[in-house]
Each structure stands twice: as C-alpha cells, then as structure tokens.
Amino acid sequence: MAKDHLHNDSPELRDPQAAKPEDAVLDEDLGEELSEEELSAAPAVYEEPAEEEEAAEEGLALHKWDKKKKKSGRIPRRLRPLIAAGSILLALLVVYVGVRILFPEVEEVVEEDEGGDYDYLINYMSSDIAAMKFEYEDGYEYEVKLSRSIAESGYTQTSYTVTGKTEFAYDATAFGSLISAACSITSANTAVEAPEDLSVYGLDTPRVRVTYTDLEGVETVILVGDEAPVGTGSYAMLEGGDRVYVMGSYNAQYLLYKDMYYRDRVITSYTTPLEEVDSLRLVTPDGEFHVRRQTEEELAEAGLFACTYQIKAPVDTGANEVYYERYLLSYITAVTALSVVEDRPEDLAQYGLAEGQERAMIELINVDGSTRTIYLGDTAEDGSVYARVRGITSVYQLDGAILGILDATYQDVMDVALWTYMIGTVDNVEMNLDGETHVMDFEHIDEETMLSTLDGEEISDINARMLYTRVLQIYSYDVIKDDAEPGEIVYSFTINFTDGTKATLEFARLTDRTFAVIRNGVELGLYSRVTDFKAIMDGIEDIKIGYTIGRV
After folding, report:
1. CA dihedral of residues 17, 19, 20, 21 (deg, nearest 10)
2. Most buried of the four, 41, 46, 132, 453, by CB within 10 Å?
3. Can you point out the beta strands (E) in 383-473?
4. Helix/strand/coil (H/E/C) assignment for every residue in 500-512
5. Is the dihedral of CA 188, 191, 192, 193 positive or negative?
6. Among candidates 122, 128, 146, 125, which has minimal Cα distance to 216?
7. Has residue 308 got a pLDDT over 50?
8. What 3-state class would DSSP assign to 235?
9. Phi first, then psi: what are they for 245, rounded to 5°?
C-alpha cells in the first residue's frame, strides 16, 4: 500500500470517483424533469473551473498539512518572515525607548512671529556708509569719513578720519562700534503719527542731527530728541518724515557721543619702558625730583656701589632700582586718559592748565632724545584731574590717583643700603662701637658650612649670620644739610674679604642721633641714625649671654 502511494498508483489518486462508496448512486433521480420555461426561469448555478477546483483541493491538502504542523508545535514556514520582521521592530522600539530615557529630547521653542512690528528708521549695510555728520544742539559738529582697503590678511580694513582733526589719533575699534550701532536702527514703538508739536518730543531742536551719506552720495537724516519717559530710549524720527519713534538707548548713546569719545586716550605708551626711558622728572612748586639711568661708563666707575639709576635732584645719590621701576616708572609709562574734555580749548585757565598755572609737570626723557611731557591742572568734581600733553591741543581727564606720584620724594627712592656683600666672601668683620672693639671671624669649611667666632668665642651659625645681617642694615636716611659740620668718628666697620681686599664704613657725629657717612674714605653727604648701631651692640650683648638673635 505504501509503495502504491509513493508511486501515485493508488486508485484514489488516479480516479477521485473511485474513493466514493460502492453503494453511492451516481445517476440519482432528483424528480421530474423541468420544462424549458422553468429551466430558463431558474437561477444560474455557479460552476467552478477545473483549475480552480484543483487549487481548492491543493489548498485543502495544505491546510491539513498546517494543522499537522501545529499539532506537532512547529511554526508555519509562511509565518516565519512576518515573525522575524516583528521581532526586529520590537527590538528597535526597545532601543528607541532606552535612548529617549537616557537622552530626553529637548523641546525646541519656536518664537512666535510678532507680525513684523519693527520699523526701520535706518537700514544700511556698514560697508555702504561713506560718511556720517553729527550736528549737536550746543552747536558742536563733526564729520567722520570712512575709507576701505584690503589688508594683508585678505579682509577689508576700514579707516576713519574726522574732518579737520587729522592731527588727533582715533580708536578704530571704538569707531567701528559707532558704525555698527548706527547702520541698523529699528523701533517697535511708534509714539505718534503725524505729530502736530515736535517740541513735545524734543525734536524741534534735536539733541543731535545725524546725516548718513552712502557710497552713491545719497543722504538720509535722522533726528534724536528727548529721552522717552519709560527710560528705554530716545524719541527719534527721519527728517521730513511723519512718524515719531522710540529709538533704543544703545543706538542713541553712540549717536550722542561726540568725536572725543572715539579718540585714542593713551597718554604714554611704551613697549619696553625700562629700555626706552632714560630719565624721569617731576616738577612741582616745591621743587624738582629727577632720576636718571646711569651710563655704562658711570656704572663701571662706581664699581661695587653702582646703582642702575641715580637721583640727580634734589640730591645726587643712588636710587633704589626696585622702588623706582615698580612704583614710579611702571605707572607713568602706562597712563591712559579717562576722557577727552575739549580739543583746541580757547581758555586753558578754566582747567588750571594755563602756562605757569599748572599743578605739576611730569616729563619722560627717552633714550632716543624724545620727550613726553604731561601737565597736571585742577581737580574736577568727580575727583579726576585735568591734564594736557605738550604738542597735543587737547584737555584730558586723568584718574586722580596720578597725584600720588607727586608725593614721592628722593627719600623714598634713594638707595638706603650703604653696602652689601655675600657672607661667603668675608673673612672677618672688625667693629668699633663707641670705643668698644669686636671682631667676628668666619672659617669657611665649604659652601654651606662655616665655623664662626665672636671675640675668639665660638658662636652658633645662626647668630653669626644674624649679626652680620645687622652690620649690613646700617642705612642712610637723608642728605646732610649744607651747613652741617661732621665731628669725630664714633662708629667704624671694616670688612676684610677672603681675597685680601677690604671695605670700610665710618660714621662722624652730626648730632647725638645722626652720623655722617664716610664710605671707603669718601664722604657721601648722607647720614645714618644711632638706632642702627644700637641694634648691633644689643646683638653682641645677647650673643655673649647665650641668646639667639634675629633680624631687627
């Protein structure tokens, strides 16, 4: 039977009718035969084509086969692609949900269009402006012209020139800000249309009348009036127009600035002042203070006691390099004005700057022989100081702090140290203190170790170093008055060096508390005070009774 089924020899497969029961009646009598009229009136009977009948039988067989599959637990083959696609979609959905949880999407806020309520009073490209003229209520006026060129970098470079003021330097960046603020001016507020009385808005005599000239020579004029009550800007209108607007404060302020605002306010400018400046002079009604850089020849002649700078007036003595450079020279060589008050003033006296009236003169004398001279005048109400620069016909306002340098005196700047030597070069120090003689001796073992004695008694390393420091801290305090006459030598010190040379300091009595300085046999015209000698004597006494001393 199995063999017949595999070879399609089964009677049932060869003849479907053979599968019917033997007692089936093929020609069954269904009743009386219908007449032709009845047949024609009967509904048509659907007859399935043979091919469709075979397809139906095949579908039935497949259905039976699927049922067998389901019963055995296997997934129908025709459903596998659908299930696979569904699995992929499910996986993608899980990934998407995870991403949204970890990185929530920021909602984009779209600003609503306000309906184009902004009106342009002025609408230029900055590159289209050739000139701007400003006419102020007080009668002042100026015109700035723009010229453009291609820089080496390839970008367009704009230069600004104020008509009739070519001798003054202007800040191109500041003028650039003006053009940026002036070329595009809008307003969201129309104060009134067709106003009958412009004086209500300060536009009958505007604070400033600005004329724009484009590259083709076409002019546009805008008027800026009073500040709006809300404090958000100023009233403005196009000349000849019929509407009054409120211009923003930012735009208005630039149109109201006069050309002095855009000036280069650098008064002194040096790249390397320590190399460029030779001398500094401060001249006041009280006298002159003059510091000058020493020449190479002067430094060589002074030898060990040479100072980079020398005070030349009111005394001739060395200057403290650190104090001079840090507190005087660095400040004066970087002075910048707060503002320019007036160009070409007719009356300098109102600023305290008339010739001979000035409060002080500050002069920088450069190595190349050029000078920069600043005159200081009266103090303004805000605490600033009026000033002018020789060769520039302008009045500036400087920070009032500049007056502080006028208080500097030669006592502040002078080099008060009388001598200074590294302890490693010293063999011994002889000290004669008002009739008492003491000797501190150093035996150098190596660069860091030494054995020290005071009057033959061994002392600690720290005491030896601190006592030597006190010897070096004998300072000069001021110049001796012309009528002073030094007396006997009360204190003297000799430093003997390991190379066999020596240096001496001697002090002759002027008063009970002051002593004229004689260094290496030369009177310096300076005096020292008794307190410095007392510190040395106290240190010696403390060491001998076993104390550890420190700096004074």
Report:
1. 140
2. 132
3. 385-389, 392-398, 426-433, 436-444, 450-454, 457-459
4. CCEEEEEEEECCC
5. negative
6. 128
7. yes
8. strand
9. -115, 170
Nearest-5° Cα angle at 539, 535 to 540: 120
- What span, in angstroms and rounded, lies between the C-alpha atoms of 289 and 184? 54
Residues 6+ apart with CB under 8 A from 367: 275, 276, 277, 278, 293
Residue 155: helix, strand or coil by DSSP? coil
Q: Give the E-state strand segments of 262-383 in sequence order.
A: 277-284, 287-293, 309-313, 317-318, 339-343, 360-366, 371-379
User: Is omega for the bond preceding 16 within 30 degrees of 0, making it cis?
Assistant: no
pLDDT of residue 102: 59
The CA distance from 241 to 252, in Å, is: 18
Instruction: Report CA-CA distances (Å) from 200 to 206, 226, 238, 244.
Output: 11, 9, 16, 11
Tokens coding 548: 């550890």
| Rounded Cα–Cα distance for residues 307 and 486 (Å) | 26
Which single residue is written with the structure tokens 């050309």? 259
CB 243 within 8 A of CB 190: yes
Question: pLDDT tens digits, residue range 68-90?
Answer: 444 445 556 666 666 766 677 77
C-alpha distance from residue 258 to each of 133, 185, 253, 254, 525 (Å): 11, 19, 10, 9, 56
pLDDT tens string 487-502 = 999 999 999 999 999 9
Q: Can you tell me the distance from the alpha carbon of 87 to that of 83, in angstroms, rounded to the nearest whole number?
A: 6
The dihedral built from the CA positions of residue 344, 347, 350 and 354, taken in this order, carries a sign that is: positive
